[in-house]
Amino acid sequence: MTFNNKKIAIGVDIGGTNIRAGAVTINGEMVGNSVSVATRAGEDKELITQRIFDVIEEVTEINHFKRPDIKGIGLGVTGPLDVRNGKILQCPSLPTMDFFPLQAVVEDRFGFPVYMNNDANAMMLGEAFWGAGKNFSSILGITLGTGLGCAVIIEKKIWMGSTETAGEIWISPYKNGTIEHVVSGKGISDLYKNRSGKVMSAREISLLAGKGDEDARAVWDEFGSAVAFALSWCVNLIDPEVIIIGGSIVNALHLFLPSLEADFRQQVCPVPAQKVKIAKALLGDNAGFMGAAALVYS
Q: What are phi and psi of 112, to 5 degrees?
C-alpha cells in the first residue's frame, strides 16, 4: 500500500465497552480498515492490555503497514487519567486498570512514540483537526452520551489546566445534584421516568418524541435547557468561536436544539451570544480513533 510519502498515525479508542483502532493521515484520511473488539472491562488488566496490543497489530497487518509508515500511536482512554505520566487512575469504566501505566506499556511493546489523553479531549481534538472545528482557533466541545464530557481546544491544542482537569464540568452543581445527573443518557431516562413513570432509554425517548409524545417532547426541552445552562457558564468564561456537540445523543440534536438555543442566547454575554456558533460533530462513528490519532499530530 502506498501513502504518497505520508506517514499515518494509529489511533486507539479505549472505552469500557469497546476498543477500536484505525489509521489516519495528517490530512484526516482514513487508511485501510479499522478494527474493533469488546473490552470486557471486568477482566484482568493483562487481558485488556493484550486486546489493545491485538487491535494495533491487526490494523498494521491487515493494511500492510511497515514501520517507516507509522508516525506514532494515540490512545484516547476513558478517564480519569494522569496524562503527564501516562497512567489510568481509578476509572469506573476500567475497574481492573487502576493506576496502570498504559502509555509506557504500549511504547515498550511497539517502540513508537505513544500519546495518551482522555477520550472526550481526543474526540474534540479530532474535530478541531478534521471535523466541525477545522476552521476555528478556539473550540468548546461537549460529548453527550452515557455521561457528560467537555474539552477546550485552543489552536489545535488541548487545554489541560494546571491539574489536567480542565473541562471536567460533569461534577458541577445543578439543582439538587450535578449537571451530569441531567445532561446524560441516564439523565434523559430519569427525566422521562419522573414525568411518565416509565423506564426507557434516551434513544427510545427520542423515537417517542418524533411520534409526538408530549412527555418525551417536554423531556427534550428540559434537557436542552440544562445543556444551555452548562454551556452558558463555559462560554461566558472562555469566549470560544464555536461549540461542537458530539456523542451518541447528538443524533437527537434536532429535538433539543430549539430549547438549547433559546435559553443559551439569553444567558450568554450579548456579543458572544450573537457570534458564537453551535455545530454538530462531523466525524461520526470514527470520532474516537480519529481523535486518538490526532494526538500524534498535535
A: -100, 160
Residues of the chain with pLDDT under 50: 1-5
pLDDT of res. 77:
96
Here the CATH number for the domain that contains residue 27 is 3.30.420.40
pTM comes to: 0.93
% of the chain with per-residue pLDDT over 70: 98
What domain count does the chain have? 2
Backbone angles phi, psi at 238, to 5 degrees: -110, -15
Find the domain containing 47 and state its range. Answer: 8-124+286-297
Residue 231 within a domain: yes
Beta-carbon contacts of residue 75 (< 8 Å; ≥ 6 apart): 12, 14, 52, 102, 103, 106, 114, 115, 116, 117, 292, 295
Residues 32 and 90 in one domain: yes
* Domain identity same for 141 and 277: yes
Q: Is residue 3 part of a domain?
A: no
pLDDT number for residue 237: 96
99 grid coordinates? 493506576
